[in-house]
Amino acid sequence: MRRRLLAAAAAVAVAVPVMAAAIPASADRAHPAVVSTNPVDWTPHVLDGTVWALALVGDTVVVGGAFTRVADAKRRVTVARKNIFAFGLYDGEIRTFAPQVDGAIYSLAAGDDYTVYLGGGFKSVNGANQRGLARVSLRDSGRVAPFNAKLNWGDVRALATRGGHLYAGGTFTAINGVNRVALARMNATTGAVDQGFDARLSGPGLKRVRVEHFDVSPDGRKLIAVGAFLKSGGYDRTQIALFDVGGPSAMLSSWYTTAYEPPCMQGFDTYLRQVKFSPDASYAVVAATGRASSAQKLCDSAARFETSGGRRNPTWVQRTGGDSLYAVAVTGAAVYLGGHQRYFDNPYGTDSNGPGPGAVSRPGIGAVSTNTGKALPWNPTRSRGVGVRAFLATAQGLFVGSDTDQLGREYHGRLGMFPLS
Question: What's the CATH fold of domain 2-412?
């Protein structure tokens, strides 16, 4: 019966009351080539904690996370910056931008009029109650009125903007008193919930439903979400769901996969951590943790899925042999992967027994072929730590945010940028 229901869901697009979605302001730019292995010398340094999020607003890079101090590129000047700061895209100059945010920032999205949206686990901004979601000005660090979206509880882990709309994913179950489980669309000016947008995510038997991450295709027609959920609109969608959002209303796509139904190690309600579309949206790549228990599961892997309809198995799988992947960027020239991995091309390696046949060293960061998923020669290295948490591909190159201070065999405090060669 379950297989017949899945087949029926795949045969036709299933209506779900969701309105058109957004291209994330921090969407990865397409690149003509793989970036250099030598990071630029002008990016500032985050001196403690973790960088969780990056966004580009005009000529300014905004950095969010859980940290307290930032230094200039030459480490001559240190300034206090709690959980958020900004710097110049071309020279790394630290901006005066310094809103007071009392908790970690997990996600960022550019807004109109030189503003940025913040998502995270905070409860106040500049002393005012503002749980998990806020809009602030890069000119004066102030909260932007009349935006006043209010979460009932929980946090925001992913954000995206398009036109007059803001999209948020996380652990909340309501915004402004309107029930929205883990995924919502709002008016970008006021924060009012779009009454027509409801992905109807659920997770029978799960302790909590959450969207860990989502992405919107560059053309704005598709939205893909990953996280701790099992259904959308009553149809089976284990940990991953794709929506068609190009028309006046949205639909749960006929696309689905059963690849993430097998569980990883006990305790992972979801082992998917990030998902990104390719520049032409013909495929998406998922980065996962989960502590691999067999080469047949997709724990501790990256996997490419074509986004045309029906049931899909992965086109390729890149396996680390037991180390987590947390971040992915897809630029057309390469798929960049970050985590605390030691190896790529390592389906037969394990934590206890070391690398398997054919494994290649790629500590903490690496790139794989878009077509085959095999490791590319690009190998700048980084100190592994917990792992890369954020990539941002711009016209200039690839920004990286993490929790360690060695990148490309140089000192770079939790932040760096690999330029296009």
Answer: Methylamine Dehydrogenase; Chain H (2.130.10)
